[in-house]
Amino acid sequence: MTAPDGVxxxxxxxxxxxxxxxxxxxxxxxxxxLWRTLRDIENLRPGFVSVTYGAGGxxxxxxxxxxxxxxxxxxxxxxxxxxxxxxxxxxxxxxVGRYAAAGVRDLLVLRGDPPxxxxxxxxxxxxxxxxxxxxxQLVRRAGDFGIGVAAFPERHPRxxxxxxxxxxxxxxxRAGADFAITQMFFRADDYFRLRDRLDKAGCTVxxxxxxxxxxxxxxxxxxxxxxxxxxxxxxxHRLEHARDDAEGHRIGVDHATDLARRLLDNGAPGLxxxxxxxxxxxxxxxxxxxxxxxxxxxxxxxxxxxxxxx
Length: 310
Known about the structure:
45% of the residues lie in helices and 13% in strands. By secondary structure, it is of the alpha/beta class. It has one domain (17-115, 124-289): TIM Barrel. It has a nine-stranded parallel beta sheet. Helix 3 packs parallel to helix 4 (89-102), helix 5 (132-142) packs parallel to helix 6 (162-175) and helix 10 (245-265) packs across helix 11 (280-288). The longest helix has 21 residues, at 245-265. It is globular.
């Protein structure tokens, strides 16, 4: 199968890049749902699909397995997450080598959060790394990978102030990062302020905004608590008082569509949709933005066909 273009090349073309995030399932039913989602995503011919780690690197092996399968058995380009938490340098090099052997050429490099409490004290592995910039250097030395890093429109929860946060980001780019994907956020101005700060620091790495459809109040409140993202009061109020799931879905899709349109209209290099392994909300936003309609992938293409997802 012909290798898809890497993220660096796609961003260099100057057109908005659309991509999607999935996570490794835990159950057979979850796996079937995931492969249906991947077939839907594959039909859109996106720039890439990213595969996340669980909290504290808990799904490392499942992440690696899934990234390999997507790279080998679909037409999708894969960006695999890689975190330093819980890994020795030797283990990290082995994981990077495994990705390379599978044809995964783009990695999203993160320091990661503590496994038990994302807000708890950070303790590096005794034979591991302390900072994300060090992991970027490790990957850069390992081969010709496209390297993405995280950006935080509302500042990383562990950064004491904005100058410190921007300094950490600049260190990652100087270590070899090619692009960034933001943490979830719900206010376009937060993204624009981050971009202005990076411009002032002389940092020109493309920063792709992440779009999280907020369709359920309790779910989004929990995600916001873990990530430090601020949910606008009016959005939270409408979701909390939604009459049913259908109304919640509409509220979340409308808000995310307005956010995405404003980001694109003001020069964002693309959009990265969080799917939670379901495409309904992401596809509704995609269509509401007037983006290209899906084309059908032949049933024989993609691992999903072999998992009953067609």
